[in-house]
Each structure stands twice: as structure tokens, then as C-alpha cells.
Amino acid sequence: MKIVVTGATKGIGRAVTEVFAKNGFDIAICARDESDLEKLEGQLKYKFSNIEVIALAADMSIKADVLRFAETIKAKWETADVLVNNAGMFLPGNVTTEPDGTLEKLIETNLYSAYYLSREILPLLQANDRGHIFNISSVAGTKAYPNGGSYSISKFAMTGLSKALREELKSQNVRVTTVIPGAVLTASWEGVDLPKERFIDVEDLAQLIYDCYKVSYRTVVEDLVVRPMLGDL
Ligand SMILES: NC(=O)c1ccc[n+]([C@@H]2O[C@H](COP(=O)([O-])OP(=O)(O)OC[C@H]3O[C@@H](n4cnc5c(N)ncnc54)[C@H](OP(=O)(O)O)[C@@H]3O)[C@@H](O)[C@H]2O)c1
Question: Atom 1 (ligand 1): residue with closest C-alpha?
């Protein structure tokens, strides 16, 4: 079994990578920081000695890097089982006051990354006769909130991409799940002075994603909505 995860060195991507690795999956991962990636590659190979790890430093907001990541995978794998479009960034702001270029940066990172990589990896999922795409959106992609600005716009777009893929791929045995988390305790929240109880546990979210994958092929979880027990921040 083989999984592709973008933005795998920290947070949600890392937790998802570890759950699937623990369950015997070969792993293809990327992030921008090469030394973080090398460290994770070493740790995965040490902890899970029987799995294959493909790791490439690549910036998913740049189309050429997305294509390079896909080519690196295709040079080694003819099939894949799971794609997790996770790489993303959060910039707080309001549409009317955020710096010029914020929308472009967030759309490139949070939307185009998933759009281009899904198109590239789909043939590997189809070659497998079944596959599963998880798109990591956000509650910010289902409702507007103060200081959400272009992040919210980019996540609404990600939700739209995910729903379009679900419609297109339902007859092709490729499941598509839109993952819609509230606040998850990851590096994105560094410096925020709130108790950890106000956040989703990242390992819970990763396990839920794995559980969605494990249901039978007669069934698909279309939307995985997960919130902190006390509700959104
Ligand atoms: N944390 C939350 O509360 C929350 C809630 C809802 C949705 N989400 C979504 O979940 C996803 C992951 O968030 P997170 O909180 O886990 O983030 P995180 O802890 O900041 O980790 C982000 C990961 O993605 C990589 N990354 C960032 N930009 C990238 C790029 N352009 N190309 C390739 N890799 C990139 C980072 O490594 P490098 O920096 O080395 O590239 C890192 O490995 C995002 O799409 C985010 O919008 C998060």
C-alpha cells in the first residue's frame, strides 16, 4: 500500500504520515525545508524498517515543484492508494486590509497545490483500480469568521475542488474526503496563549483520517468535520 502526503514534516501531515507508516504503507512525502525532511525520512526508516520512503524538498505553491514531486513518485511507483493534499499555510487578515498579494499566496499554496497534484497522482490511483484522496480544508472553508480574510477564501476554494473531485471520481472507484477540522494544536498555532484543551488533538485527527480510509469500498466519508469539544475558537 502506498500513500502520498504533502507538507509531511509537521502538524497534521506528519501525524497522518506516521499513522499510515505504522500500518505498513510506503510513503512519499514533501515539505520545503530539506533538513526537516531528511530528519523525518531517517526517523521513518528507523521506526518502520520495512517501508519505502520517497522524500523530496519541494514547494507545493510552485507548479514546477508539484510536477517535480509527481515525477519523482511516478519514476518509482506505478500505483498509489492514498493522496493527502495537506500542505497549506495560514495568514490572518481581513479582505479589505490584508497586504496586496495575500490572496495570490494563499490560493497558490492552499488550492493550486492540491489541484495540480491531484491531476498528476490520479492515474496512479486509477491504475490501482481504487484510491482515496483526502483534501485538508478547514472550518474556515465552510464559514467566514473574523480575521479569516483570504485564508477563508482559499479554504472555500479547496472545499469546492474537493467536492468537484468527489463528483467526477465517484464512478471510478476513487473516494474523495473533504477534511474539515477546527483548531488543531500544531506549529500553526505557536505562540497563541490558549490551553491545549481548546484544540483538537492532532493524533485524533490523523486516526480519524485513517479510519475513513479503512471503511469498505461500498462506503465513502464525504465530509470529515472535526471540532474541539468546546467548539470553535
Ligand atoms: N492547525 C489547524 O488548526 C488547522 C485547522 C484546519 C485546517 N488546517 C489545515 O491543515 C493543513 C496542515 O496544517 P498544520 O496546522 O498541520 O500546519 P503546520 O503544522 O504549519 O505544518 C505544515 C506542513 O506543511 C509544510 N508546508 C507548508 N507550506 C508548504 C509548501 N508551500 N509546500 C510544501 N510543504 C509545505 C510544512 O513544512 P515546510 O515549512 O518545511 O514547507 C509543514 O510540514 C493546512 O492545509 C492547514 O490549512 C489546519
Answer: 184
